[in-house]
Amino acid sequence: MNLENININEDIEIDDGTNKSIISEEQEDVSKASDVWKYFTKDINYKQNKKAKCNHCGITYTCTAGATTNLKKHIKSKHSSSEKMQEMSIKDILKAVPKWKYNNDEMLKCLVKWIIVNQHSFTIVEEPAFADLIYALQPDAKLISADTVKRKIMDLYESNINKVKESFKNITGKISFTIDIWTSPSAKSFLSLTAHYIDDDWKLNNVLVDFIQIFGKHMGENIKNAFMLGINKLSIQNKIMGITTDNASNNLTFVDALAKENNSFQKDNHFRCFAHVINLCVQDALKELDDKLSRLRTLLNKIHHSPQRQEKLSFNCELHGINNLKVVLDVSTRWNSTFDMINRALYLKEALNSLALSEKDLKNFIITDDEWSELEKVKLFLEKFKEITVLMSGSLYPTLSMLIPLYNALIDHTEDYISEGEEENEGEDGNESEDEIGNDNEESTIKKAAMNCRVKLLHYYNKTNDACIIVTILDPRLKMEYYNDEIFLNVYNTTYSNSNSSSTLNNSLNNEYKNSITSKVFKRKRTQEIDEFQAYFLSPVCDESVDPLQWWKINQSQFPRLAKMAMDYLAIPSTSVPSEECFSISKNLITDKRNKLAGKTIRSCMCLKSWISGSLSDLFE
Q1: Looking at residues 461-488, what average pLDDT do you find?
Q2: Average pLDDT for 139-147
Q3: Domain edges within the chain
């Protein structure tokens, strides 16, 4: 070997039988100190200046003669915890992670909660396929019987009553209620009692307070006893603001009985469900329109009850490039189903015409162009009622403040149809064709329907109470501005004012303070209160897109007394829909096949589902 040609900085492989490499002195130093370079980064000119920077704190050290001792000292003195973490092996990390331990009691709690929320049968825990699923997920699981599920549900209800009671105790404002009665397939009657209140964060809450079995006739006294049982249980009998019910006569006797027993409840704060009022009004209108709908009903019935015709309708939908939708049949007790029937038929018009023309048995029920035109007008007449019903059936935003404005909107709507018919009659010249006479009859029919509807609307409009006015005033989108409306002024001057004069409400704040309703509502005793009231009215009326609850949340410090009133009044619901919705849920719990549940068990399941799924869910975390 020629030693003169050897570069001492090159690796030299020596065959010593182990196939190992010999490295240069510098690389050997680096190799021995390789762990250090996990924490330091060499300078770009390291070979010349031997400098390295700490990855953690950025300090720079010089490695004299390539030594890394000072780097190691820095790591141990300044970053010992980081070093330990870097040195941890995967085994060490796994050991450091707490070991998960299966808890059968926690699993059973979740299982019971799942059964309640999804309304499963208690016997689901005894089904072999369900057990197989649980054991596949956790072989150590221990399931329970259906009877034990029932017992745990009853215990959960009883153990959480005090929590619910405490949550109601912390409510700042008053509480309003909706009630309704339902009879199950097993002939058990239940009172659904729902509470509505605004919390300190200005959110509107609705909670099922109780689902109580009623024994005997649905008399006012029995309803009152069930109602008092529900509110006494939660100690909220002195926080009643308003009660919303349907228009059944037994609810009027219930209100009378409640006012006699409970001094905190004012009889005037009973509200008729607006959705129910609309139903009564439209039903009166539909009596006049029934003949116009009979041919359509027959056609749709013949299609609905024939699978073959449904298939043909589906084919015709595709042929005419419209969505394949089924026909809708109306139910006599639900006017909105009549609107849905007409609306769907108008959408399927071309497909229905094609089907009727193609079948001999349906040719007598072909809808003519004039009849389709009539149906379109009926739809437009009913559409306003549908929109308002949907709007007022909401439970997460204030609705009572819109009651009087929407009453007026519907009255105006009916009067538009009445005046339209009168104008056309005035324009008659006596030389009408048969078609024109038919059209006059059509307009006359819709006019009669509108007149029937208007009479019923005015009947219930005149039954609205002072609270309906107060809550409108407390809506920052409306205030007193709305009451320039002639219909309101008429009702105000003839019904609400104690004055015998015929003067009307105007924009003068001084006059507003003098009228009886304002005095009654705001009970001014101190100049400070009047100043607050005046400042509220001088502030701009909000845009309709503004959330009134959020407005009061922001402005409550400026108007503290009015804010307290708003918290009480804006929570009053205009419909009893929230209570009625409970019955839709209960129909899944109590079926023809599952009809032997005891009243107390049904009560526990219904209340727990509402509490766990709704605004009291925090109590069950």
Answers
A1: 79
A2: 95
A3: 3-96, 153-273+582-620, 276-428+435-460, 465-569
Structure confidence by residue, pLDDT tens digits, 339-370: 999 999 999 999 999 999 999 899 889 999 99
| pLDDT band (50, 70, 90) for residue 72 | confident
What Å distances lie between residue 551 and 2, 337, 474, 544, 562, CA to CA?
A: 95, 37, 11, 12, 12
Q: How distant is the alpha carbon of residue 562 from its chain centre? A: 27
- Which whole-number Å values give the CA distances from 383 to 380, 387, 414, 614, in the listed order? 5, 6, 12, 32
Residue type, 308: Q
pLDDT tens readout for residues 182-204:
888 778 899 999 999 999 999 99
Amino acid at 533: F
Helix (H) or strand (E) holding 192: strand 189-198
Q: Please, which residues have CB within 8 angstroms of residue 37's CB and are 6 or more apart in sequence?
A: 30, 52
Measured distance CA(90)–CA(455) in Å, rounded: 82
Rounded Cα distance between 401 and 391, Å, is 12
Q: Do residues 450 and 444 make contact, with C-beta atoms less than 8 angstroms apart?
A: no
Tokens 């009047």, located at residue = 530
Q: Which amino acid is at 371?
A: E
Q: 114: which DSSP letter?
A: H
Structure confidence at residue 482 (pLDDT): 62
Sign of CA dihedral 604, 606, 611, 617: positive
pLDDT of residue 498: 44
Question: What is the DSSP secondary-structure string of 238-271?
Answer: T-EEEEEE-S-HHHHHHHHHHHHH-TTS-GGGEE
DSSP collapsed to 3 states, 288-302? HHHHHHHHHHHHHHH
The CATH topology of domain 153-273+582-620 is Nucleotidyltransferase; domain 5 (3.30.420)
The answer to whether 519 touches 547, Cβ cutoff 8 Å, is no
Distance CA 206, CA 394 (A): 11
- Confidence (pLDDT) at 351: 96
What number of other Cβ atoms are within 10 A of residue 617's Cβ? 11
> Which residue from 487, 490, 420, 476 is spatially nearest to 449, judged by alpha carbons?
420
Give residue-wise pLDDT tens across range 269-296.
Answer: 999 999 999 999 999 999 999 888 999 9
